[in-house]
Amino acid sequence: MGKGRLEAFSDGVIAIIITIMVLELKVPHGTSWAALEPLWPVFFSYVLSFIYVGIYWNNHHHLIHTVSHVTGAALWANLHLLFWLSLLPFVTGWVGENHYAGLPLACYGCVLFMCSIAYFVLASCLAADNEALKRALGKDRKGKLSTLLYAIGIVASLGAPWAGFAIYVAVAMIWFIPDRRFEPR
């Protein structure tokens, strides 16, 4: 099967995810800076999640651009990734509304952890019959490190929520620069 439909569908789902997240931002009641103060936790959780969705969209684009066709397994793996990404608006809102409390932040980390696993599964399915992609992925140290950091962030969130949040920000910073392994290919 050609990759065009998979990429178009994924782009549409990701656009909807971003739309849902932004619609969760509530308009302040008032015109002063003080009216914005209670919204900062929600806004910062939105910014982090927007960055994560952007990272996944960018890397997904590079991943799909590297292959010429997709298999049925890759279609299901892609849906698996989109499922976990679609939960980001929920956990983003929960984290922001509860001012980065431990359990919501740990659940946020669980969703990020599962997104990383799903992306790994998708990349593996696509690389199974694509030698150039297999070479580009290499040992995927950055992906494995990120998954480990998410697991650490989940545990940290339960005991020291700001430490968990700092880990999630650190992983986003690691991935903020697009993955250069794919650009030459």
Which labels suit this protein?
mainly alpha; globular; 185 residues
Helix content: over 70%
Structural class: mainly alpha
Order of helices and strands: HHHHHHHHH
The biggest sheet, with number of strands, parallel, antiparallel or mixed sense and barrel status, is: none
Strand content: under 5%
Number of strands: 0
Low-confidence stretches: none
Separation of the first and last Cα atoms: 21 Å
Put simply, the count of helices is 9
Rg on CA atoms, Å: 17 Å
Gross morphology: globular
Tally of domains: 1
Q: What is the average per-residue confidence, as pLDDT, rounded to a whole number?
A: 92
Description:
It is globular and about 55 Å long. The model has no long low-confidence stretch (mean pLDDT 92). It is built from nine helices and no strands. The longest helix has 26 residues, at 40-65. The two termini are 21 Å apart. The chain has one domain (4-176). The chain has 185 residues and is mainly α. Helix 1 (4-23) packs parallel to helix 4 (72-86), helix 4 packs antiparallel against helix 6 and helix 6 runs antiparallel to helix 7 (131-137).
